[in-house]
Each structure stands twice: as structure tokens, then as C-alpha cells.
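Archive maintenance. Older records in this collection stored only the sequence; we are now back-filling the structure field for every entry so that each record is complete. The fields below show one back-filled record exactly as it appears after the update. Entries are processed alphabetically, and Adenosylmethionine-8-amino-7-oxononanoate aminotransferase is next in the queue.

ARCHIVE ENTRY
Title: Adenosylmethionine-8-amino-7-oxononanoate aminotransferase
Organism field: Streptomyces eurocidicus
Length field: 433
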Amino acid sequence: MTPDAVTGLLALDRRHVWHPYAPMPGERAPLVVTSAAGVRIRLAAPFEGRPELIDGMASWWAVIHGYAHPALDAAARDQLARVSHVMFGGLTHEPAVRLATRLAALAPGDLEHVFLCDSGSVAVEVALKMCLQYWRSRGRPERHRVLTWRGGYHGDTLHAMSVCDPDGGMHGLWHDILPRQVFADTPPGGFDDPVDPAYTARLAALVERHADRLAAVIVEPVVQGAGGMRFHHPGYVRELRRITEEADVLLVLDEIATGFGRTGEFLAADHARVTPDVLCLGKALTGGYLSLAATLCTPEVARGISAGETPVLAHGPTFMGNPLACAVANASLDLLEGGAWRHDVRRVGSGLRDGLAAASDLPGVRDVRVLGAIGVVQLDHPVDVPAATRAAAREGVWLRPFRDLVYAMPPYVCTPEDIAAVTRAMTAAAKAG
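Back-filled structure field:
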């Protein structure tokens, strides 16, 4: 694009386009992307002298196989030649049936019923609706509250916002209209730190105290993502499964950010070796090509809903089970089931660990942590986002810091050289921020 064309496009963008988590009109001009391939996004105009940037964010953690992957491109083209979309009410098709069957087989335990929806937030809405309707169908409508632990993030739709962190999260504006939920303390940090029995005792007491009003407990297992990039021991998830079973409360695990290998296991729940009653998946489901999510539940939950006065789950997104998205998701699962992702995630994690080792000694750095293909530098102050972004771009990497965090969740196919660049960029961003 010519400089004049870029300027004109940005003027229209500022006038008409409302970007996420931004005012209208925007305060800062976004970068204009013209194409992407592998792990690099190409820009219409160089930024800090760079015509392309390594995507250290995997486009909000979704593009795990990289951009323009030949297998995913081929799956999309093949499905486009057949049917790109058809309504899912009263109709079905092979890509959706095959995807649901495969997800049920890959999920732990008996999570064999799959509701395909549009996005992660909707997957959480569906999960909570399942739990609420389950108890209504069993004649217990008073069980309509949800418990979670602080520090979590589950999406931007109304019910999903109600189970995000009520204080440190971004949805405090709506506290007076959101459903009132029950919040436990944030689980103690440290994936390798031993489980604190005092914390689990408090958690059990809280669940027991509210059990008669609880429909479910929902948490992000092992990694709390957009709420603060915190890691905790899988033992807390195991304890939560035991606690909810003893209290006869449903357990929902939100794996939208952690699923499909990001933490080093296929699902974060696999670290804990537990099966929830309901499981939410999204983000990397299609390798970042198209929006698609899934909510899985056990036969017990499905039977409970089906036995009620209203025996259907009254939820039906227009693009539910979209054939194009399902076909690409199947191709992404093909790549994952090839098994190379485990080696790739270990390689990425090792590179992040080595490259960030010295960052702990930087002024203003509170903590450095790595799990799977997630690297985090936590500061002791809010990040200067523009300065940190520019510093990362000068190293040839796109990062999107937030709050007090400079972090990366890069595509699994990054080379060691790519990851070295990412860690240099994270270090530069931490210094600048």
C-alpha cells in the first residue's frame, strides 16, 4: 500500500471502527496488516523500521500452527467448494459430526455431548446455562449461583462477566447489574509449589456453606489467563473436583485459553487428571482461522436437562456448527494428533525459559514465569503500553502487554531463533515499560 493509502485507511478506521478494549475514536492508530505467513505478520508501513513482526501473541493465543498453514488452507478451500455455511437447526453435516466425535474422544472421561458455538464467551454462557437449567430441571431453581476463584477471566458477555474477577478485572463497571456470584480467594501461585492444605480447606468450607444455592463452580485450570497470567498447582483442580463431588455441585473447566497443548498437556485438566461436568474450548480450536468454540458436557448433565419441563437447551447461534470452521478445526486436530506439538511446546518453553532467565534481575520486575508455551514477565508497576510495544517492535516482535504484564504465547511452530527474538523483545519491553 502507498503511504497515502495507509493514511486514508487509518482515517476511516478511526472514524468507523471500534477496536476491542479501546475508546471511540481510538487514541492510538493500530498497525495495518496486509498479510501473514508462518509466524510473521506483514505491515502496510514499517513500524520502528520493521516491515514485518513475529507474532508473539499468536493472535490472542489462537494461531498455534502459524499463518497460512498449507493443511489448514487446503481444508478451507476444499470446504468452500462444498458449502461454507448452512443452518444447524434440523440439519447436520459431516465436518460438525466428525469434529464433535473427535472432541468427545480427546476430552477426559465421559464428556461426550458437544455443543458447537461461536466464541469463547458464548461457550461459557452455554456452560452456565447448562448448569442452571440442570438444577431447574431437577426441581432446584434456587441453585442459580456460581462460585469461582478471584483472578479469573471468562469472557465479555453478561453471565461470563459475572464470574470474572470482580475487583481487579475489567468488568467492575457492571457490578450493580451482573448476577451476584460467590468468589473464593485466588489460588496460591506457582505450578511447582506444593498445594496449601489451608487454602483447600477454606475453599471446601466456602463451597459447603453455599452449596444449597450453587449451580456450579467454574475455574480456569492451572493457568488464569487474561485475569493476570497466574499459574497454580494442578492439585488445586484435583481438590476442587473432590470438593464439588462431595457437595453435589457441578464443575465447569474453562479451557478456552489453555486447551490444545498450550500448557504442555493437551488440556490443562490433564495435568490434574480430572474430568469436569462441563468443559469449554475455543481460541486455538481452528488454529486461529475462524471463530469457533465448543461446550462439552457429561451424559448426566444432558439427561438432567432433557428430563425437565423444558427438555431442550434453548440456545442456537446462527453460525452454530459452521461447516467451514468445523472443517478447518478438523484439519487443526489432524496436525495436533500427529504428536509434534508436544516437542514444539517443549522447545518453545525451553527457549522462553532460557531467554528470560536474566529478566528476573531487571529493575521493576516482580516475577518471571514460564509454563508450556507461555512466558510472563510481571512488573511491580503498570506497563507503559505504548513504550513497551515500541520497544518490542524494535526487536521485530509484536507483543500486547497489559496491566503489569509483558507476556508471550507464540505459535508452536516458532524456531529457536524466533523465540530468542521474542524473549529479547519481552526484555526490551519490560525495560521500557
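Update note: Residues 73-338 form a domain with the Aspartate Aminotransferase; domain 2 fold (CATH 3.40.640.10). The mean pLDDT is 95.
Entry marked complete.
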